[in-house]
Amino acid sequence: QVQLVESGGGSVQPGGSLRLICEASGFSLSNFAMAWFRQAPGKDREGVSCISNTDGTTYYGDSVKGRFTISRDNAKNTVYLQMNDLKSEDTAVYYCATDPILYINGCRPDWRTNHDLDAWGRGTQVTVSS
């Protein structure tokens, strides 16, 4: 059974850092690109970052470039999202996701907006507030 479980969320002050963790089970995430998305109350789901399975290339949404870093540890079947210099607008539920067909050959050009993926975690809450 394919499962993605996020952890590492919490409450931090602006300028703080968090590291999100996405643990996969039931499949080997080394075979697929992996992405992080987020959704704030009343807003659409937003693509945050994607990491390719083919060459390790990483992609970021404009609002997080230079502050967030995605990485993967295939041996641990885990993907990470290091978030630094957090801002109040980063407050959201963060999800990791993948798809056995769409993400088999790396991150798609439409990774930020195509949310029709087969596997999602339940999310972890990130709150940035003073």
Describe the structure.
This protein is mainly β and 130 residues long. It is 0% helix and 44% strand. Strands 2, 4, 5, 6, 9, 10 and 11 form a 7-stranded mixed sheet that branches. A 4-stranded antiparallel sheet has the order 1-3-8-7, with no helix packed on it. The radius of gyration is 14 Å and the shape is globular. The chain starts with a strand and ends with a strand.
**Helix content, binned percent:** under 10%
Euclidean distance between termini CA atoms: 40 Å
- What characteristic shape results from the CA principal axes? globular
Q: Estimate the strand proportion.
A: 35-45%
Low-confidence stretches: none
Number of DSSP E strands = 11
* N to C succession of SSEs: EEEEEEEEEEE
Mean pLDDT score: 96
Q: Outline the biggest β-sheet.
A: 7 strands, mixed
Rg estimate, integer Å = 14 Å
Structural class: mainly beta
Helical stretch count? 0
What tags apply to this protein structure?
globular; seven-stranded mixed sheet; single chain; 130 residues; 11 strands; four-stranded antiparallel sheet
